[in-house]
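Page 37, top half.
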Amino acid sequence: MTQYTPGMRVIIRQEEWMIRKTEKNTLGNDALYCVGISPLVKDREQVFLSDLEEDNIEIVDPRNVTLVADKSPHFRQSQLYIESQWRQQVPTDDKLHIGYKACMDALPFQLEPAQMALKKPRQRILIADEVGLGKTLEAGILMSELIARGKGRRILVVTVKSMMNQFQKEMWNRFSIPLVRLDTDKIDKIRRELPAEYNPFFYYDKTIVSVDTLKNDINYRTHLENSYWDIIVIDEAQNVAKRGSRRAQRAKLATLLAKKSDTMIMLSATPHDGHAESFASLMKMLDPTAIADEQNYTKDDIKGFFIRRFKKDVRDQIHGDFPDRKVTLEKCEASPLEEHAYDLFAEMKLEMDKSVRKGSGQLFKTGLQKTLFSSPMAGVVTIRNRVNKLKKKYSKVDMPDIGVLEEFGRALEAIGPKEFSRYQKLLEILNSDEYGWNRTATDDRLVIFTERIETMKFLTENLRLDLGMSKDQVQELSGQMRDVEIQKCVEDFGREESPIRVLVASDVASEGLNLHYLSHRLIHFDIPWSLMVFQQRNGRIDRYGQTQRPDIRYLVETCENEDIKGDLRNLEILAQKEEQAQENIGDPSLLMGQFSIEGEELIVKQIMENNTSAEDFSNMLEMDSEQNSGSSVLDSLLNMANQTEKTSYQINQDKVEDETLFSDKDYLKDALDYLNRDQRQAVSELTSISGLDVELTDNLRRRLNAQIPVEAMPQGNILRLSDDIEYVTKNIKESMKNDLNDSAWPQVQYLWKLHPIFSWVNDKASLFFKRGEVPVLGIKQGLRKGEAIYLVNGKYLNRHSEARIDDWFGVRVTVGQDSNLEILSMDEVISRTGINHDNLVNSNSLTGSSLKFLEKYLPAVYDASSQHLAEDRKEYVEKTKPQLNEEIQNLEELEHKHIAVQEELFQDNQRKQESGKRQVEELFKDFNDWVKNTMEIEQQPYIRFIAVLMGI
């Protein structure tokens, strides 16, 4: 019976496939899991049963080739063929080969997460940099490296609904990673066009979807359970951590996804809430073996899975990329009607609160105060809702709170826009020469944040009236909007042709969104009770890529009532301390020692309820920041971050410049010119900058339609590509100036190795010679007569059929020296033969006898290649054996820890203890097998003859 092994190439049904893995079925026959190699089936996955296909399976013998003379002018066919094959070489080290070349001015610290992840067998990492440092770009750099390594064919990105469009654009415009956006409209379209049982994650290889869609849609959850990806990205990952029952569904979803890919990238500026168990849940999604006891672990347990930097940590690298922010506290005095309302509120005693333990943070009056400090209008709605609930249970006689609340509600209703002091202060600022806001300028837009929907609606309605602006010019953004509405609003805010000048946003816009393209002004209309919200809000305009100095204003009210004055003063202190923390300690969360919005708000509620003085509150924050800088969990995380820090020089040392015969632009132009040599020219160079205009033939359009986001496809018949990063970046920005009827996607696409057009060109160029044919070039310069160099590609695969050694080299043969074959590097081959030059002369002087002469040496060259690759393998084993042993030893130690925890947890329940131990043993067996199958390689290499260069 034929022995099939991973990495073996086979011909099945006239197409070439590579076997990825084999399994025995119940009848003892092989099931061959294959991936397509020949153009018609390229990258397609298929399972063949050996017993059914027995007569149709032909094992490809790399020595059984036919040498054919290249008769094309200047050996153009061979050059393009060699280039098409060489470009598919995969990096097998832990260096950066492509991510740093993306369409961005990458700062050194942004390369570090990819470098850190590539040093691990599995690329699973939480990137937890501060708001605005470019976590999305850091994820794109790592994803690019994985795609170059053949590990990115299927990608799933999960994010909040407001971020889908932005994330999709960043991945395409800067990294040529085409994600299909599964928003509400797209899902509805899929349901109309695809059969109900069809899995859309099979139909689309690279998708981006909102966490709420996956959480709430039962069908999509089923689709997830039946899918597998090469890369999974979870943005705003704090939303999937285990933090009580409120996020249980999201945590279960993320835990499910964690098992559906070898690679997982998590992004979060607020990765923990100060509780060991919450952060451990994220770490266990990345690696379930890492932490045995979720309440007791150290920085060593999470080493390599987590990186976190603040602006202060990378300040030496970001000069000019983050202009220093200007922060101003804008104070105003309460109006007489507001003073009256505050007096009523201070004197208010509520029966419903008497049964609630003081300081618990559950008092209705404290919650009402929070809405009151947002706006009287928000307070009115809160009162109305509570009164309606009370009236369903009690009469006014039985429940005196009803009358008290109604009286207070009437006092708030009396406060109109003229009497609302903070609103009047806002108008004063917007109309002042000092503020200098140009409401007609397309690049001077304003973001106003508020917590309450009622306040947001009040502001949008009244700003339109008082500023004489239209509905289109003053728009609101809230979580009540559909995902497509949110995405359109955010995109329009960054488009010059859009009429939007003011965006009034609830905190749905405080997570991740880029609002800095045309705006450097942000006003906090109300003061949040959480430092994390401060950080998230400010990060919308104070972020990487901001070109102007961010102008941030806090509206702070003062009043005569001593109780209310103290509470308002405490909020003012909160704003001041947040700014100090940004400069000095990096993480404002250290001020309160709470690492969740809910935890921080609870502290502030307790401050309000206890009537804590402003001086005491300020001292408390100072004291907490000192104590919390050494707290157990946070100390571990920050120490871990410090361990990953490198100098710019050290980071840049890990970059590799891969060379082939052509630059990206020259390869594309020469290939298209040659492919269209019998037709009119299909490609032309741009005149003012480096780039190409490529005519979209029907064949090319069909291919790109399947590989480029539909929004990014050219509207005409020309695809414009440029390798000039500055020009492409400028075009990305200018796309925001397009008429609103046009796409806000750039008309110029980035020309680099990962653009999908190169996979099409590679496939076309690989067809210049038939299967089993090897081109021969008769070279006059560099090689003597009777001297030949055989270009060879040799690979060793691991048991996942991933190349761990992918070597390109030449074998030099000289007549009369049959036993002395010389191995040459590709650099040496190129320098000796000049095969990368345009002016090679093809005299077409190769004869049949010359080819026969070369064929005679094929066995000897194959043997020499095998010996050379055996040395590669020996070097690989010597290098990885200590790493493998260390990984296995670490797993053994961790397994003992996990078992000890099970014994401790269930010491009084033998049955549960044994069940827990079995689960641990199964988990670690799977991980041991995975590590070995990843790091250990097959005994035999796969060798291919690419071309032969013969001296004439």
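Page 37, bottom half:
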Amino acid sequence: MNTPFSFQEVSFGDLPGWQEDDPRKLFPAMRTILSHLRTAKPYRTGALGLTAADLVSLLDMADQGQADSPEQARRFFETNCVPFKISPPGGKSGLVTAFYEPVIEVSSARDDTWRYPIYSRPPELVDIDDNNRPAGFDPSFAFGKEDEDGISFFPDRRAIDEGYLEGRGLEIAWAKSKVDLFFVHVQGAARLLFPDGEVKRITYAAKAGHPFSPIGRLLLDRGELDPKTVSMQTIRKWLADHPDEVDGVLWHNRSYIFFRLADVAELGMGPIAAAKVPLVAGRALAVDRLIHTFGFPFFIHAPSLTHLDEGKSFARLMLALDTGSAIVGPARGDIFTGSGLEAGELAGTVRNDADFYILLPHVAAERYRR
């Protein structure tokens, strides 16, 4: 296999913390993935070459089996999978961050308090691929604006904030905090809490197409934040302390996210993300979809990440169920911590070195042994 990273078969005994993990929560999610794949087109195959067909046999066995104890759950994977360690070039460690589903207060009508719109996808925003990509468009641009003159760049965050889409009936709801709404864009999903107590859910629908530019990096480069303590919380505090500079900092990230309403029937479950199934708090991982294929199990070991597991090093089996603009590379992941303020507090300080192991069903593992 010709890859720009190391891909090495290991044993389950080589997975630090494997014997203490309890992967039972993966089984309901695997059944949901199987149900989705039976009624929808297969997940896109990443550069690693793993296909949804490789995964189905494992999902079938999980659907038919039981996992009544942590030991039984681990034994299922030990029997049916082979772990492979994925390492970036040069043998470096991978990296994990975390994300969550915010809860944001909104109104269905605009007034002097509720001023910041949450937009649905505009009709002139079109997907771009190799068949319709205009000359001069970087391959990273997956969306553009189509009109009678052809396809061009869609307006960026600043242009949209300054009214480009105003008055077209694209508003899903109105928020009262521009900063809160910005972080909803970063997370890609949210629960909307209306004044009468009604709850709606939004999830990612599309983006304007411009590259994601992290504002934390901007503030670090300007010397405004300490690299040893930078987190979502310190970024938000800086924005609260510098209200006159908020627009300029937020507009540094030209990327803009559009949303759609999503089902909220099961508020105990996470949002439906890129893999089209609900995320599982603490067990769902966002990966680079250009390399990896959704649905595969990953074991993540992050020795310095301790606040998610009551002081113990993070060592969990997870499922690849989402992706993100900042999730780039073979050993790069984003851990879903759940919904609401507490989950946000957990997610905001995660930025840790980690080792990545992918569990391959035997049929796929045989290909990589050749």
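Margin note: DSSP finds ten helices and 17 strands in the chain.
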